[in-house]
Specification:
mainly beta, five-stranded antiparallel beta sheet, 5 strands
Length: 73
């Protein structure tokens, strides 16, 4: 089975929470939570960290993009 997943933001992008936009976070990764029978990811959470190194998990609707970072992978 192939899992189809294309997040809106990439690892390294700088984001903020909609409810508290003054605090910035960096996208560290993704936590896949739900996949349908066609292999499409239907729910996931972004793994974020702040300037103090604390980790957080938020769904896509909670997060706003502040700055897109180009990854040279």
């Amino acid at each position: 089975m192939t899992i189809v997943f294309e997040p809106n933001w990439n690892i390294g992008d700088i984001v903020a929470l909609r409810i508290k936009p003054e605090t910035k976070y960096v996208v560290e990764g993704y936590s896949l939570k739900q996949i349908n029978i066609n292999g499409e990811v239907t729910f996931w959470r972004y793994m974020l960290y702040n300037s103090e190194g604390a980790e957080f998990f938020y769904s896509e609707q909670d997060v706003l993009l502040i700055e897109r970072v180009q990854n040279n992978i």
